Amino acid sequence: MPDVKFQFTRFAKDDRGGIAIIFALSAMVFFLSAGLAIDAGRAYNASSKVQGAIDAAALTAAKQMRDGNLTDSEVEAAARRLFDRQIVASGGSLVNVSDFTVVVDQANGSVEVKFEGNVTATIGRIAGFNTIDIPATSLAVFRPKNIELGMSLDMTGSMRGAKMIALKAATHDLIDIMLPDNGPANDVRIAFAPYAAGVNAGDYAADVSNGRASDGCVYERLGRNKTSLEVPSIGGYLAVRQDFSRASRCPGSAKVLPLTNDKELLRRNVDNFSTGGSTAGHLGTAWAGYLLSPEWSAIFPSESEPAAMGDKNTIKAVILMTDGEYNTYGGRWGGGRQSGVDARGLCSEIKKQKTVVYAIGFELRNRSAISILKACASSSVHFFEAKNGAELRDAFRSIATSLSNLRLAR
């Protein structure tokens, strides 16, 4: 007869079945943990895509609301279309949307998008998790920045003919991009500083020369502050013809035009551009800076008053464009070295005022002039070498588009 006590003791000590049970339980826990981790990863990935999609929808809808004068319902529809497009493009089409709310505040220029949804769990369903919620919200307050652009444009004799035709076409392009017919023109103002050996200051010549400019033509500052942006005053007025023994001509019909959003006025001024004379590039640079300097507010009409330097709601920029050597100073050909020195100094002052400087060499072969323009430009990407009229138009379009994008930045 078997020893019952012995058999029971063997059974009690046999742990082979227990190990199998423990392993099975451990494997199940591991399997569920891994499955939950996979589902959590899917939810995190979906949440990231949803957040990106509603951010884009809110911001773009806010832009469209401002630029297109959309109604609340049109903004809501635009936001949903943009969200759907973004979420599909990002590969997040497995997201289940349970609620999508758009809150529009026209007065504050804001669009808030609220999202409620989930992703369907896979392995997590074994543990009772059928879906994983991924709520998200995004608020876009869209207040486009203002733009003040001063354009220093070469009107010298070498610009005659095809070059001037190209410059007029390029400037018209820029105006059309920055002041679209169906857009809010009050946010963007453009000013012209045409130059040759001098600058035709037109109606402002008397104020900047202490009443001494009889023909509107002005040159460098007399005395101090020749490379500053300060308003003309005693000891710092601009010179006129009688201050020099041989003063060369100013652009005839191409006069200084202070900041304006009047598109037709700008276009008429472009059409009146004319050529003649040598290149005092520093004068064009100076006037591009003067037109944006709040210190000159007393000189220009109230509607052309520049914003304060450092105004966070305003982008200030200048374009310096020339096709030739800096070769004139004091209204007299042969002062290229001093013209270059002053141009660099003026560019430095302009950039100190948080103004973006774009520089364009148009069919320009003079290495000294190219060096000056490169030094003046805010960076290498702000300098353009246009080898022909088509490239000049491309440069102007690129600048206009770049500034428009900066204006619309969040």
Structural account:
By secondary structure, the chain is an alpha/beta fold. It has two domains: 4-141, Roll (Nuclear Transport Factor 2, Chain: A); 146-407, von Willebrand factor, type A domain (Rossmann fold), CATH 3.40.50. The chain is built from ten helices and 14 strands. A six-stranded mixed sheet has the order 9-6-5-10-13-14, with helices on both faces. Strands 1, 2, 3 and 4 form a four-stranded antiparallel sheet that branches. Strands 7-8 form a two-stranded antiparallel sheet. Helix 8 packs parallel to helix 9.
Low-confidence blocks of residues: 27-32
Average predicted confidence as pLDDT: 85
N/C terminus separation: 92 Å
Q: Sheet with the most strands? A: 6 strands, mixed
Strand arrangement within the widest β-sheet reads 9-6-5-10-13-14
Count of DSSP E strands? 14
CATH topology of the largest domain: Rossmann fold
Looking at CATH, the homologous superfamily of the largest domain is von Willebrand factor, type A domain
- The SSE order reads HHHEEEEEHEEHEEHHEEEHEHEH
Count of folded domains: 2
Which CATH top level class of the largest domain fits? Alpha Beta
Number of H/I helices: 10
CA-based shape = elongated
Q: Please estimate the helix content.
A: 40-55%
- What structural class do helix, strand and pairing data support? alpha/beta
